[in-house]
Amino acid sequence: MADFFEDDVNEQEDEDIITLHNYETDKDEEFYHLATLDVDGKWYIVMQPVEELPDIGEDEVLIYEIVTDNAGESTFKPIESEEELQKVFDEFIRELEAHGCDCDDCCDCDHDECDCDDCHHHDDDNE
User: Fold this and answer.
1) pTM over 0.85
2) Per-residue pLDDT of the chain (127 residues; tens, 9 = 90+)
3) Where are the domains of the chain?
4) Closest alpha carbon to 36 in 22, 51, 16, 20
């Protein structure tokens, strides 16, 4: 099961943006909350940077396990196992495909070449 959040840059709601503090750069960074996934009884969050970051490609996502501590606070735990990370990513892709293309909400493309993660690429054609 997955919860997906709209990735419409023009109508992005604050609740779909997560701010994380990068301790290496001592700066806050914003990420779009793309999905929350339940895989094998564990919950994961899938995010994509709002702005370009030097160590994350524009077509890459971040995936963390969501863990709850004894006080009931949720935190994001890095996934250390490459196998677990691949399994969660594969589930994310399956869920994306199951939800289909949402581009009819933002453009008139025929969906053949549409990149649903960034369907606003068609905006350049209309300028």
Assistant:
1) no
2) 455 444 444 344 556 899 998 888 899 999 999 999 999 999 999 999 999 888 888 889 999 999 999 999 999 999 999 999 999 999 999 998 887 655 544 444 444 445 544 444 333 444 4
3) 2-121
4) 16
